[in-house]
Amino acid sequence: MAGIKQFNEDQALDKAMHVFWRQGYGATSMPDLAKATGVQRGSLYHAYGDKQNIFLLAFARYQRHYLEMVRQHMRLDDPEAALRAYFAYVISSMSEPVPPLDDTPSSRTRGCLTTKIATDETAMDEPVRNALRGMLEGLADVLEERLSQPDARARLALSPKDAARLLVTFTRGNVVMERIYHGPEQLQATADSMIQILFKPR
After folding, report:
1. Does residue 67 contact residue 143 with C-beta atoms inside 8 Å?
2. pTM for this predicted structure
3. How far apart are CA 48 and CA 126, in angstroms?
4. What are the respective helix, strand and coil percentages of the chain, to the nearest 5?
5. Residue 149 exposure: Cα atoms within 13 Å on the Cβ side
């Protein structure tokens, strides 16, 4: 990042993330990012180079926050309660309204940023794919770490690694269901069923 930035980088990347979340990767342009962040296009180019680099930096901030929130929910003493709290967080996050680009509120839910970018063919350059892989693998690591603890491992019907991988894949499917049904209660009920499958009866 050459030069001295004359703007608040955290705020600019946060606003940029919301643009990608709302519009997707391919439909977002540098003028869109300049307008949303309040930073002149030339300054954005000078600081970051291109749209892809802005996305990667914004996504890295999103990933750190998301995984830290998952870690907090997974610290609950009971592993089933930890997974319920994890799913509640995931469902609540993707069910929030789309952040507005202006003062006009939106009735649309924002869904999952990772899945939205992953299903955008224009975003599939290798640096972006690596960022998405890092997010999903990081999520699997957090889940596996908690499920590897003795209280969870003794009750799991699968290995912690397989259970974590299944949970990550299941979460991606739940994202699609949210886009269709917009029903947090239904999503949570389905998540509860997954938890019952993962754990042996007491």
Report:
1. no
2. 0.88
3. 18
4. 70, 0, 25
5. 14
Among 162, 160, 164, residue whose Cα is nearest residue 138: 164
Nearest residue to 63 (alpha-carbon basis) of 135, 167, 115 = 135
- The length of the chain, given as a count of residues: 202
pLDDT, tens digit (0-9, with 9 covering 90-100), for 21-48: 989 999 999 999 999 999 888 888 888 8
Answer whether residue 126 shows pLDDT above 50.
yes
Residue 97 pLDDT grade (very low, low, confident, very high; cuts 50, 70, 90): confident
Helix (H), strand (E) at residue 75 = none
Residue 90: other Cβ atoms inside 10 A: 24
Q: For residue 36, count CB atoms less than 10 angstroms from its CB and return exposed for 0-12, middle for 13-18, buried for 19 or more.
A: buried
Domain boundaries, the chain: 62-198
- Return the closest-CA partner of residue 195 out of 78, 24, 42, 49: 78
Task: Assign 105 a pLDDT band (cuts: 50, 70, 90).
Answer: low
CATH tag for 62-198 (out of 1.10.1200.10, 1.10.3720.10, 1.10.357.10, 3.40.1550.10): 1.10.357.10
Q: How many degrees, rounded to 5, is the angle at CA 183 between CA 177 and CA 187? A: 60
Residue 97 · residue 106 · CB < 8 Å: yes
pLDDT at 103 over 80: no
Tokens of residue 24, six digits: 């997707």
